[in-house]
Amino acid sequence: MTAALRAQGLGKKYGRRWALTDCTLDLPAGRVVGLVGPNGAGKSTLLNLAVGMLTPTSGSIEVLDAPAGGPQLAKIGFVAQDTPTYSRLSVADHLKLGAHLNPGWDDSLAQARIQRLGLDPKQRAGRLSGGQRAQLALTLGVAKRPELLILDEPVAALDPLARREFLQDLMEAVTEQELSVVLSSHLVSDVERSCDYLVVLVDSRVQISGDIETLLATHYRLVGPRRDEKSMPQNQYVISASHTDRQSTFLIRTDEPVLDPAWSVSQLTLEDVVLAYMGRSASTKPKSNDRPVLEVQR
């Protein structure tokens, strides 16, 4: 199966500090992947390695089944944090630059998007709103006709309306161009709205990955009489546990029905799932019933 992005033992070190360590990841092509994790988890470093802006200190990374960087760059569209544009260049200048740098540039697509968005080709980027700059950056990313579009928290600084418009345009581009997308975000609502595959990265390590629909169907909250975690069935992987004197609450993952009548059982939201795994340090000693990180394919 073609992989949009594959990392094996990937690490990046700056001086004595590791920004990314021992990251292993396999993202399928043809999906809209939401990459979520706390600040400092290594998300931006991972994506910059994927587009060849950084070189690994250890391990390896492939994009579209070939080493990152070099010829693969022509197949990748990239929108970095803060959706950078050149403040002194006009919208039209940005499109000319895109055409000059990208042999597969689709100028009709770029011009159509600019017209539909109501952007003045003569307007300098420095005078555009944050939402307009983000849309200009997305236009540059999709008009090169990439196979993979990588977005590093492109809407974090936008207001809710601009963020929604950006994500709607992104989904239209995905449908029209059959793109693979990796979207890094700290906003679970954006991932839920636009993505069908989830990766939670904590301390450079993948805590969970898989189809969002499947993840939601296999995670539960159990509330009942106080019980020791070690007594839980082996088919119930405990993500987190909290206790009072008489009551226990477990967040679990299981592929099988929970039949114990002592438990009150409820499904988790996507935010519940993300926060539960983000709360687990990758360096935490495994629990007695720990299993390998979940990776589910549709």
From TrEMBL:
Q: Which Pfam families match?
A: ABC_tran (PF00005)
Regions that span the bilayer: none
In this protein, which residues make up the domain named ABC transporter? 5-228
Q: Which InterPro entries match?
A: AAA+_ATPase, ABC_transporter-like_ATP-bd, ABC_Transporter_VariousFunc, P-loop_NTPase
Question: Per UniProt, which keywords does this protein have?
Answer: ATP-binding, Nucleotide-binding, Transport
Give the GO molecular function terms: ATP binding; ATP hydrolysis activity
Which PROSITE patterns does the record associate with it? Answer: ABC_TRANSPORTER_2
Asked whether the keyword ATP-binding is assigned, the reply is: yes
The protein here is known as ABC-2 type transport system ATP-binding protein
Q: Which organism is it from?
A: Kribbella italica
Q: What is the lineage of its organism?
A: Bacteria, Bacillati, Actinomycetota, Actinomycetes, Propionibacteriales
